[in-house]
Amino acid sequence: MKNIGILTSGGDSPGMNYxxxxxxxxxFIYKFNIFSILYGYKGLYENNIKIIKNYKLLNLNNNGGTFxxxxxxxxxxxxxxxxxxxxxxKNNNINSLIIIGGNxxxxxxxxxxxxxxxxINLPGTIDNDILYTDYTVGYFTALxxxxxxxDNIRDTAYSHECIFIVEVMGRNxxxxxxAAAIAAKCEFFIIPEIKxxxxxxxxxxxxxxxxxxxxxxxxxxxxxxxxxxxxxxxxKKIKKEIKTVVLGHIQRGGKPVVYDRILxxxxxxxxxxxxxxxxxxxxxxxxxxxxxxxxxx
Length: 297
Ligand code: F6P
What we know:
about 300 residues, alpha/beta, 4-stranded parallel beta sheet, about 20% strand, binds 6-O-phosphono-beta-D-fructofuranose
């Protein structure tokens, strides 16, 4: 009998519940037991593990977030903590794990694989910064939220002839920023992939103002520059009101858009099929519209 544990870890993302749903539906068909592990690796360590008896009774609605709960559990880097987590898996007779999250989460699964636990990783993060997948579950919902927010900011920027700096998430990846910049027609973007030069930005702004620019959005990925300092500097140089908005965790919540729902569900069912076919230690991705798997290195 296959006993499979499932957990979500790191920053939640809209669509994670659809992955879980896909896993449960497919597991039902193959008659696999699914064990919920609550709050990610922390729950694994604390033995917060329960078999899901009747998944139809679960309140798996179309909300964002994760029904399983999540956490960033830094202590998982300690051997003694992992040792207890692995013992909990063994005591529950769990032979495979489905692990949903971002890059930090994937590092956790490497530790487990070294100790003989079979893992399938699924990309659940708004950042879209995971190798070998075109998209991660949650990315398009976050993007939509960002673009809607910037559309709102644009209205007031227009009315007041004002420049706004809008900081978006992405950790060290500019994909959310650049896509939102295109969709919301931001005049300037600053992303980690391109070295930022503050004076070049000032020159560009001055040039555009000379050519009639009255309001503008500067979109910037988090962790590049303190945007309050940046706004003060720009204000001093161009003598124009600059306002700042940090979009923050609004970007991580909300009901998933259709693409994230379908991608999440498909990846969940695919993960179970992989286990059924005897795959071990692979990550799931989507490339050119096709689900793929690749070995965890
Ligand atoms: O990885 C998802 C993410 O939202 C990043 O974009 C951001 O840097 C980080 O998580 C924020 O994490 P926390 O909610 O722990 O502050």
